[in-house]
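Quick log. Single chain, no ligands specified.
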Amino acid sequence: MSSSPPVRRTALDALHRSLGATMTDFAGWDMPLRYGSERDEHVAVRTKAGLFDLSHMGEITVTGPEADRLLGHALVGNIASVGVGRARYTMICREDGGILDDLIVYRLGEREYMVVANASNAQVVLDALVERSSGFDAEVRDDRDAYALIAVQGPESPGILKSLTDADLDGLKYYAGLPGTVAGVPALIARTGYTGEDGFELFVAPPDAEKLWQALTEAGAPVGLVPCGLSCRDTLRLEAGMPLYGHELSTSLTPFDAGLGRVVKFEKEGDFVGRQALREAAARAEQNPPRVLVGLVAEGRRVPRAGYAVVVGGEVIGEVTSGAPSPTLGRPIAMAYVDAAHSAPGTPGVGVDIRGSHEPCEVVALPFYKRQK
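-> predicted structure:
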């Protein structure tokens, strides 16, 4: 009999439990879902600051003289053009163009990159990169156990972090990262996030994670920072119109199907996995897009959930991929793939079939929420 693999725990597991977190299994990791009210956690990130443990994300280091060429071949983006200290959002696709995962790639040095994959896909991405490294003078290393990842997100996050580091945060652009020391802990400080707010993600050695978490907690207390779980991270990213793998992204969709064709760089040097299939997908999307990802705002109180049918006049025209009550809008919201003919904002007659009843929804452009800069 085969036994299921043991649930993995982050370096902050005992601390989460001491804070009374509700824990949940996520991609084989025991992770905090919420500490108290997920709505309060969500509002804290939008108005003050929130602290997240994201140590379940998968870090993969790629080094060597041909590291940039390997990543150019393996991924759809132009990785060679990423400057040292900068990061890029990109994807790894199959030969048929289907999305294996969406990624952030950090260029740490001339010949060193860190690829950050979603927890549920980390092994798949690692295996694909190892397989695709054949013939390149580059090494692919599984560094998932080498890092803990702590995020501080929200409008108060720059001030909180500034009180704990002498790193040049003002000079740190969005999608950039620099090595520094935070509360005496060596860290890669990245200005990235998945909430729609300004914020930082801090990659540190696991033994340092608790010290850093406590220092951030103390520094953030006067301005209302609270610990936050995966539940509010999901509603925050949904309001910000950010895709989640397994919902808006999957192997059955290409980046062009997902409305993210901009990440595919056909003009870059060298061939890359999926190029031909993606060329065809791009042409299809231009001439006759099958379905388009849109936002839906429910007129009533019932929440459109993933998998529910989107309907017009009794005819199914799409499917909800993610849905939740929106604390910011005060209404239920959803993302859905719908037929192109019904994708324009304000399209009349659109609703979601919720257990047999037609719940009217307004079609809107994504994102639902964009922070004021």
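Residues 53 and 150 are 5 Å apart (CA to CA).
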